[in-house]
UniProtKB/TrEMBL annotation, chain B:
This is Bardet-Biedl syndrome 12 protein. Residues 1-26 are annotated as: Disordered. InterPro entries: BBS12 (IPR042984), Cpn60/GroEL/TCP-1 (IPR002423), GroEL-like_apical_dom_sf (IPR027409), GROEL-like_equatorial_sf (IPR027413), TCP-1-like_intermed_sf (IPR027410). Signal peptide: none annotated. One of its GO terms (molecular function) is ATP binding. It comes from the Eukaryota. GO terms for biological process: chaperone-mediated protein complex assembly; photoreceptor cell maintenance. Gene3D superfamilies: GroEL, GroEL-like equatorial domain, TCP-1-like chaperonin intermediate domain. Transmembrane segments: none annotated. It comes from Myodes glareolus (Bank vole).
Length: 570, 763
C-alpha cells in the first residue's frame, strides 16, 4: 500500500552549523573524544545494557564504531575520522579533536566560509611544508640501525592507551615484542620490491601480560587430545603441505536450488565420503605429509590420514588462510577433484606448543616472514584494547619504513607548530597576503583560530586540572600543577617537556598556553645530541599525524561549507 | 521478569532443599543468609565501614563511585537486583579462604538464592555460584563477573579473595578521590604498591620439595590404618605393600575412607606438637636461622643431595620424618604431603583428605606405570573427576582408581555377568544416535528419497541403524561403549538385550584415559570402528552394594583397566542440596593442592601474607620519596606530567588507603573465623601487631619469628595459651597474587572510566 501514499516533501535546513542543537551535540562529541585523549585519558565503557561483554576503551576506532550519531554534520566528521583510522590506525582522536576545535574556533571569528576555507587551506599548507622541510625541528629521522626511536614510538602508542592496564615493566615487554614481531615480518633478502610478511595476534586471555611471547611461524589452536593423537606421526625433514579452503566435512550443502531426488538405498553421504577418501588416496600417493583444511574434515577422512601417517588439521579458520598460503607456498584448493602438483607447498618443521591452558600446533616455515604474537592479558576487556594497540603499533611501524621520520609527541608538535605558524604569520604577513584574496587582519584572525585549535588539542592531554605551559625557546609543551600558578621558580616545578626531549633546567622561560604570548621563532634545528641523550622519548607516527592534520582541516572545511541539509523523509 | 536465574539442582535426584528453606514467597526478597550462628555473621554495614547507610544498595563501593550508571529502582526487577547487591558485600566478607580447622563450623555460612517467581531455591557457598545466581546487568557488574570468571577459569580458586579486595580497594579509591588525589596518581601509586607488596611477600614463600620422595615409606604406615576394604570392590594390579595385609581373595580397592584418614591427621598433629615443644632454641638464634634460610633458600632447596640426605635421615627415625624439623627452621620448607594438605585445607578437612588421597593415588598409579621412575611426578587434575552420589552417608566418600559412574538399575544383571571376565571397549566421541553428524556437517534440506517399488521398507531408519551398530559391536566382540555425547535409548535397550553396556555423557578426559590405557582409538561414528580402534581388558564392578541404592533406581559402577591413569572421587552426602557445594569444595581443595605442587611453593597462610602487605605498605608510605632514583614516577604513564613531580605529596595518602584495604580484609577474616567478635576489637588487634611489626624494622622476620603467636592471636582466640598446637596454614602463591592483580585491575579500570557513554546516545 505504501506505493499509493503521497510522497513526503524532503526536509531542507539551511546553515546547519548555526543551529544551537548542532553546536551543542558537536561540543558533546568533542568532550567525549577529548576526555579520552592521551596517557591519562578517561576510559569509556561500551555496553548494551542487557548484559554481554563490556568494552572499556579510549581508542577512537573502538569508540566511533560504537557511537551512533544521527546528525549529518557529525556523520561527516566521524566518517572521515574512521576513514583516516582505517588507513593509518593512529592519530584518530587527534584528528577528531582538531576538527571539532577548528569548526568551533572559525565559527566564532565571523568570517565568511569561503574566506575561512581559503585561509585554513593556506595555513594547512604552511604546516605540511614546514613538517616536510629539513628545517623542521619537531621531526626526528628514524635510525633503523638502533631500536631507540622505534621502541619509543611503540611505547608511546601503548602508554597512550590506559585501558590496556599495563605497568611500566609490561609496557617494555610488549613494546619489545611488537618491535621484534615487526622485524620478523621483513624478508631477509630484499629485491626491488619488499613484501612485508604478517604477524598474527593469537589470544591468550587470563594470563599475565609478561607471559606474552612471539614465535616465528604460525600457531593453530587445538585440543590437547587432538594434539596427542597427531604428534606421533612426525618426521624430521621438510613436510609437503596441501591446503584446502573447501569444506571436507562430507556434506553436500552446495547442491544448489531445487530438490534432489535420490532412489531408496542410495546414500549420498557415502558417495561423498567415497569421493573424499579418493582425494585422500591421491594425497597419500603424492606423499603429502600435512593436510590443512580451513573448514571441517570428515572424521573418517581424518582416520584415513592418521592410518597413513599424514597429519590432518582442520578448522584452521579463514584468518589463517592467507598467512598459511604465504608461508607454505601452497595454493588453497577449492574443489574435491584431482589436485595439480603445483598446488602443494611445504613447511620446515612442526611442533606442539603449550601456553597457559591452550595447546597449539606450531608450523615453522623455511623463511620466517610470518610470525605469531601470543598476547596475554588478565581480563578480556584489557585484552581487546591491547590487541587494538598492538595492531596500531605494527601498522605504524610499517608506515615508518615508507617515511622514516617521527614527530615529537606529548603535545610538543602541536605547540611548536602553533608557535611556528604564529611567528610566520606575524612576520611575513605581507608576503602571504600579496598573493591571495584576503586582508592581513583576516589572516591574523584566522591564524589565531587555527593555532589555538592546535594548542587546545595539546591541552586535551591534561585531565586532572593541571596547568599547561609553553616555553619561549623551543615552543614545547610543559605540564605543571595548577595550584602553583603564582610560583616563582618554574624550573623547579617542571621536570621535562611533553616529549621528554628537554628538561626544565636549561634556562628557559615559560608562558601559559591559554594566555596569549608574544610571537617568537621557535628554535629551528633539532640537535641530534639531545635526541640521543633523552631516555624516554615520546614520539608519534609522522605519516599518520600528517594525514590526521590534513583530514582534520579538510573535514572542517567541508563541514563549514555545508549550507543545506536535505533530508528525504520517505 | 525473572531476574534471578535458578541454578540447576543437583542432578542425582533426591528432592531438593525443602526442609532447609521455606518457599520464597512473592516478595522480591531474594537472597537470604542462613543464619546459623550469630557470631560469624556480620551485617554488611557493620563490616563495610565505607558506606554506612548512605549507599547500602550498591555492589561494593565500586558502583557507589559510578552510581549514576545504575538506574534507580523502577520496577520489580530492579528492586530485586538492588536487593541482591545489598547482600553482596556480606558474602564477599565471608568467603575468604583463610579459615582454620579448629573453627571449622563457624566458617563460610551458606546462602540461599531464591527465585521469587519460580519458588525455587539453591544453596550456594562460593563466589562463582553466587555470581551465577545473581543477575548483574550493569556494566560494572558485568566486568566484575568477567574478572571472577577469568580467575575461576585460570585457577579455580581465589575468587573470594578477588571479590573481597575489589570491594575493599574500591572503598580505598573512593577515599582517595574524596581527598582530592588525581586519578592518574591513584592508578600509578596503587599499581606500584601492589607490585611492591608482591615482591615483599616472596619472603613468606615456603618451598615444597620432594613431597613424593619418601612417600612409599611414609605411606605404608598410613595405609595400614586407612585402607578400607569392606564394601568397595577393586580390580587387580594393586600396590605391593597392601597385598600382604588383608586376605588376597577379597577384592581390594585403592581407596581411602574418611574415618581412617582423620586418625592419620590427628596423629600428624600430635607429632608436630611434640616436635615443637621440644624445640628449645633461643629466640635470637631462631630468628637468625629464619633469616638465614630465606637468604639462601634457593641454594638449599634446589640441592637434591641435601634433601635426599635429609629425608633418609628423617625416615630412619621411628616417628617419621618430622624430627628433622627440629634442626632446620620450620618455615623453611615443606616436604611432606600430609603437612601440605593440612595446611592448605583451610578448615575443610574432609574434602582435603579426599583431594590428598587422589594425589597419592595418582602418584602411585603413575609410579607403578613407570618402571624406572625418571620423570618427576606432576599431578594432573584433568585425570580426576567426581561422581556425586546424594543420599549416601558422608563416610562413603572415597577416591578410586578407575571410572565410577551411575547406571540405571536395569543394568544390574548385565553388570553381574560382566563382572567375571575382562571385556572389550570402543570409545565414541560424538553422540550415538542415528541422526548425529559430526560438527561442521550441514544437512541438506532439499534431498528427497524416492521409493522404487512403492512398498515401505520393513524397518525404520533408526532400526536399520541400530541393527548396523549392533552388528559392528558383535563383529568386534565389544561389550562396553563409552560415548561422549548422548545415546539413543532404543540402542541402549537393544544392547542391554545382547549383553552390552552403553554409557553416555562420558567426559572427554575419561575417553582419553581409556584410550591410553587400552590402546583404543576414539571414533566419531561406529562405522569407523576397525580392530585398531577396539580396546581390551576392561573390567567392571558394582561400586555400591545393590541394597543401599534402590531408592534412586540407579547404581554406581566402577570401570577400570590395567594402568589406567584416571581417578574418580566419589562424593556422597546425605543431603542432596549440599551436593553441589560439596563438589565445589572438593575441587577447590584439589586445585589448591595442585597449584601448590605445580609451583613447588606455598605462602605462609593464615593471614600472614596479608599482614605483611599491610605492614609493608605502612612502611612504604612513611618512607620519603627519593627524588634521585625516582623509581616511583616510572609508574606514571607520562613521566613529564606535573603529577610526576607532585607524586610525593599524594603517595603516602594513596598507600595508606590501599593498606586499609588489607586491614579490612584481615579484620573481616577475624570476624568470620570468630576469633574476635567485633570489628573494633579485630581492628585494634591488627593495629597493635602492625605497630610492632613496623617498629621491628623488618615485618617479614617479625612475622616469621612470631608466626604461631600471631596466627593464634589473630585467628585462634580460644587456644592462645597453647601456642604449639597451632598448625601451620598455607596458601597458594600465583592464584592468590593473580587474584590481587585482577582485583586491582578491575578497580583501576573502573576508576579511570568516566560516564560519558550514556550521554552519547542519541547524538
Amino acid at each position: 500500500m505504501s506505493r499509493f501514499e503521497a510522497k513526503k516533501p524532503s526536509l531542507c535546513k539551511t546553515e546547519p552549523l548555526t543551529s544551537e542543537r548542532v553546536r551543542s551535540t558537536l561540543s558533546v562529541l568533542k568532550g567525549i573524544l577529548a576526555s579520552c585523549y592521551g596517557p591519562s585519558g578517561r576510559l569509556k565503557q561500551l555496553h548494551n545494557g542487557l548484559g554481554g561483554s563490556v568494552c572499556t576503551t579510549s581508542q577512537s576506532s573502538a569508540l566511533l564504531r560504537n557511537l551512533s550519531v544521527t546528525h549529518p554534520v557529525l556523520k561527516v566528521l566521524t566518517a572521515s575520522v574512521q576513514n583516516h583510522v582505517s588507513c593509518f590506525s593512529d592519530c584518530g582522536l587527534f584528528t577528531a579533536i582538531l576538527c571539532c576545535n577548528l569548526i568551533e574556533n572559525t565559527q566564532r571569528i565571523g568570517l565568511t566560509p569561503m574566506k575561512v576555507m581559503k585561509l585554513n587551506k593556506d595555513l594547512l599548507s604552511f604546516c605540511t611544508s614546514y613538517l616536510k622541510s629539513e628545517a623542521c625541528s619537531c621531526r626526528i629521522p628514524v635510525d633503523f640501525s638502533s631500536t631507540h626511536i622505534l621502541l619509543g614510538l611503540v611505547r608511546s602508542i601503548l602508554t597512550s592507551k590506559p585501558a590496556c592496564m599495563l605497568t611500566r615493566k609490561e609496557t617494555d615487554h610488549i613494546s619489545a615484542l611488537i618491535l621484534k614481531s615487526f622485524l620478523l615480518t621483513i624478508p631477509e633478502s630484499a629485491e626491488d620490491r619488499i613484501v612485508l610478511g604478517k604477524s598474527i595476534i593469537v589470544s591468550l586471555k587470563g594470563q599475565r601480560v609478561t607471559d606474552s611471547t612471539i614465535l616465528p611461524g604460525l600457531l593453530i589452536e587445538m585440543s590437547e587430545i587432538q594434539l596427542r593423537r597427531l604428534l606421533p606421526t612426525r618426521k624430521s625433514s621438510a613436510l609437503k603441505v596441501a591446503l584446502f579452503c573447501v569444506s571436507l566435512s562430507g556434506d553436500f550443502s552446495n547442491a544448489g536450488e531445487g530438490t534432489v531426488v535420490v532412489p531408496y538405498q542410495v546414500s549420498l553421504e557415502n558417495a561423498v565420503l567415497e569421493q573424499l577418501l579418493n582425494l585422500g588416496r591421491q594425497l597419500v600417493s603424492d606423499h603429502v605429509d600435512l593436510v590443512l583444511c580451513q573448514k571441517v574434515m570428515h572424521p573418517s577422512l581424518k582416520q584415513f590420514f592418521i592410518e597413513h601417517h599424514v597429519i590432518a588439521i582442520d578448522r584452521a579458520g579463514v584468518t589463517l588462510m592467507e598467512p598459511l598460503s604465504k608461508m607454505t607456498g601452497a595454493t588453497p584448493i577449492g574443489s574435491l577433484d584431482t589436485i595439480a602438483s603445483t598446488a602443494y607447498g611445504s613447511v620446515k618443521d612442526l611442533h606442539s606448543a603449550r601456553f597457559g591452558s591452550k595447546h597449539f600446533f606450531h608450523l615453522i616455515p623455511h623463511e620466517a616472514t610470518v610470525c605469531s604474537l601470543l598476547l596475554c592479558s588478565r581480563n578480556d576487556t584489557a585484552w581487546e584494547e591491547l590487541k587494538l594497540a598492538c595492531q596500531t603499533a605494527l601498522h605504524v611501524l610499517q608506515l615508518t619504513i615508507k617515511e622514516p621520520w617521527v614527530l615529537l609527541g606529548g603535545g610538543c608538535t602541536e605547540t611548536h607548530l602553533a608557535a611556528h605558524i604564529r611567528h610566520k604569520v606575524h612576520n611575513k604577513a605581507d608576503d602571504i597576503v600579496k598573493e591571495d584574496g584576503y586582508s592581513q587582519a583576516e589572516l591574523l584572525i584566522a591564524a589565531e583560530a587555527f593555532c589555538s585549535a592546535l594548542e587546545s588539542v595539546a591541552g586535551s592531554l591534561e585531565h586532572d586540572g593541571g596547568e599547561i605551559l609553553i616555553d619561549m625557546k623551543y615552543g614545547h609543551f610543559w605540564s605543571g600543577q595548577a595550584a602553583s600558578a603564582s610560583v616563582v621558580s618554574w624550573p623547579d616545578m617542571l621536570s621535562r617537556c611533553g616529549c621528554g626531549l628537554y628538561n626544565s633546567q636549561e634556562g628557559l622561560s615559560w608562558s601559559f598556553l591559554r594566555s596569549t604570548y608574544h610571537p617568537f621563532a621557535p628554535q629551528a634545528c633539532l640537535s641530534q645530541a639531545a635526541v640521543d641523550s633523552a631516555s624516554n622519548l615520546i614520539v608519534d607516527c609522522f605519516t599518520a599525524k600528517l594525514s590526521g592534520l590534513q583530514v582534520a582541516v579538510e573535514t572542517a572545511n567541508l563541514i563549514l561549507d555545508l549550507s543545506y541539509v536535505i533530508e528525504d523523509k520517505n | 521478569m525473572v531476574t534471578l536465574r535458578t541454578l540447576e539442582q543437583p542432578s542425582h535426584g533426591l528432592p531438593a532443599s525443602e526442609p532447609l528453606e521455606g518457599r520464597g514467597g512473592v516478595k522480591p526478597e531474594v537472597l537470604r543468609g542462613a543464619r546459623r550462628r550469630g557470631r560469624g555473621w556480620c551485617s554488611p554495614r557493620g563490616v563495610l565501614a565505607g558506606s554506612p547507610g548512605t549507599e547500602g544498595n550498591s555492589i561494593l563501593t565500586l558502583t557507589c563511585l559510578w552510581r549514576h550508571q545504575c538506574r534507580a529502582p523502577q520496577d520489580d526487577s530492579r528492586v530485586v537486583v538492588v536487593q541482591c547487591r545489598e547482600q553482596l558485600p556480606e558474602i564477599i566478607t565471608r568467603g575468604d579462604g583463610l579459615q582454620h580447622h579448629k573453627q571449622k563450623k563457624a566458617l563460610k555460612a551458606t546462602k540461599f538464592i531464591t527465585d521469587a517467581e519460580c519458588h525455587e531455591s539453591v544453596l550456594i557457598n562460593s563466589t562463582v555460584r553466587l555470581l551465577e545466581g545473581l543477575d548483574l546487568t550493569c556494566a560494572v557488574g558485568q566486568l566484575l563477573n568477567e574478572a571472577v570468571q577469568a580467575q575461576n577459569g585460570a585457577y579455580r580458586i581465589g575468587t573470594s579473595t578477588l571479590l573481597f579486595l575489589v570491594g575493599a580497594w574500591s572503598r580505598a579509591v573512593e577515599e582517595c578521590l574524596h581527598l582530592g588525589v588525581p586519578t592518574t596518581v591513584i592508578v600509578s601509586v596503587m599499581s606500584e604498591g601492589l607490585n611492591s607488596c608482591i615482591e615483599a611477600v616472596v619472603s613468606l614463600q615456603v618451598p615444597i620439595c620432594n613431597v613424593f620422595d619418601h612417600m612409599d615409606n611414609s605411606s605404608i604406615v598410613y595405609k595400614l590404618e586407612t585402607v578400607d576394604v569392606n564394601l568397595r570392590p577393586s580390580g587387580p594390579g594393586l600396590l605391593q605393600e597392601k597385598r600382604d595385609f588383608k586376605d588376597a581373595t577379597s577384592q581390594l580397592l585403592s581407596s581411602y575412607s574418611l574415618s581412617g584418614r582423620h586418625a592419620a591427621s590427628l596423629k600428624f598433629f600430635k607429632t608436630q606438637a611434640k616436635v615443637e615443644t621440644e624445640e628449645n632454641i633461643p629466640q635470637t638464634l631462631r630468628n637468625s636461622l629464619h633469616a638465614d634460610s630465606f637468604c639462601r633458600k634457593s641454594a638449599l632447596t634446589h640441592s637434591r643431595h641435601f634433601n635426599r640426605a635429609d629425608n633418609s635421615h628423617g625416615i630412619s627415625r621411628p616417628d617419621g620424618f618430622l624430627e628433622q624439623c627440629g634442626s632446620t627452621p620450620k618455615a623453611s620448607r615443606c616436604n611432606d604431603l600430609v603437612e601440605l594438605a593440612v595446611g592448605l585445607s583451610h578448615g575443610d578437612h574432609s574434602s582435603m583428605a579426599l583431594a590428598e588421597a587422589a594425589v597419592r593415588l595418582q602418584w602411585q598409579s603413575v609410579y607403578l606405570q613407570q618402571d624406572n621412575c625418571k620423570a618427576p611426578f606432576m599431578f594432573d587434575a584433568s585425570r580426576l573427576l567426581t561422581c556425586c552420589l546424594p543420599g549416601l552417608p558422608e563416610t562413603f566418600s572415597c577416591v578410586c582408581l578407575g571410572y565410577v559412574t551411575v547406571v540405571p538399575m536395569s543394568s544390574l544383571t548385565l553388570i553381574k555377568e560382566l563382572q567375571d571376565q575382562p571385556f572389550r571397549v570402543i570409545l565414541i566421541e560424538g553422540d550415538l544416535t542415528e541422526s548425529y553428524r559430526h560438527l561442521g556437517f550441514n544437512k541438506s534440506v532439499n534431498i528427497k528419497t524416492k521409493l522404487d517399488s512403492g512398498k515401505l521398507p520393513e524397518d525404520s531408519a533408526e532400526e536399520l541403524w541400530a541393527k548396523s551398530v549392533l552388528q559392528v559391536l558383535t563383529q568386534f566382540n565389544v561389550s562396553l561403549v563409552l560415548v561422549q555425547g548422548n545415546v539413543s535409548e532404543h540402542l541402549t535397550e537393544k544392547c542391554l538385550h545382547s549383553k552390552r553396556l552403553v554409557i553416555g555423557s562420558v567426559n572427554g578426559s575419561v575417553l582419553q584415559a581409556f584410550a591410553e590405557a587400552t590402546r583404543a582409538t576414539p571414533v566419531a561414528y561406529v562405522t569407523q570402528v576397525n580392530e585398531d580402534c577396539v580396546g581390551s581388558e576392561v573390567s567392571v564392578t558394582s561400586w555400591t552394594s545393590p541394597h543401599d541404592v534402590n531408592r534412586s533406581n540407579r547404581m554406581a559402577i566402577l570401570l577400570k583397566t590395567e594402568r589406567i591413569n584416571l581417578i574418580t572421587a566419589v562424593l556422597t552426602s546425605p543431603v542432596s542440596a549440599q551436593m553441589e557445594a560439596k563438589e565445589d569444595r572438593f575441587w577447590s581443595c584439589v586445585y589448591r593442592l595442585s597449584h601448590a605442587l605445580k609451583e613447588e611453593k606455598v605462602f605462609l597462610g593464615g593471614g600472614a601474607v596479608e599482614f605483611l602487605c599491610l605492614s609493608h605498605l605502612q612502611i612504604l608510605a612513611e618512607q620519603p620519596l627519593n627524588k634521585e632514583n625516582n623509581a616511583c614516577s616510572g609508574w606514571l604513564p607520562d613521566s613529564s606530567s606535573w603529577m610526576a613531580s607532585s607524586l610525593s605529596v599524594y603517595r603516602p595518602t594513596v598507600l595508606k588507603c590501599m593498606a586499609s584495604g588489607w586491614h579490612e580484609y584481615l579484620s573481616a577474616v577475624m570476624c568470620n573465623t570468630a576469633t574476635r567478635p567485633s570489628a573494633v576489637e579485630a581492628s585494634t588487634c591488627i593495629q597493635h601487631h602492625v605497630q610492632k611489626a613496623t617498629n621491628s624494622g623488618s615485618p617479614s622476620s617479625y612475622i616469621l619469628s612470631k608466626y604461631s603467636k600471631l596466627s593464634s592471636e589473630l585467628f585462634h582466640s580460644g587456644i592462645s595459651d597453647n601456642l604449639e598446637l597451632v598448625p601451620r596454614v598455607y596458601d597458594t602463591v600465583t592464584p592468590k597474587t593473580e587474584a590481587w592483580h585482577r582485583a586491582l585491575n578491575l578497580v583501576l579500570l573502573v576508576l579511570q572510566t568516566d560516564n560519558k557513554k550514556t550521554e552519547t546516545r542519541g547524538i
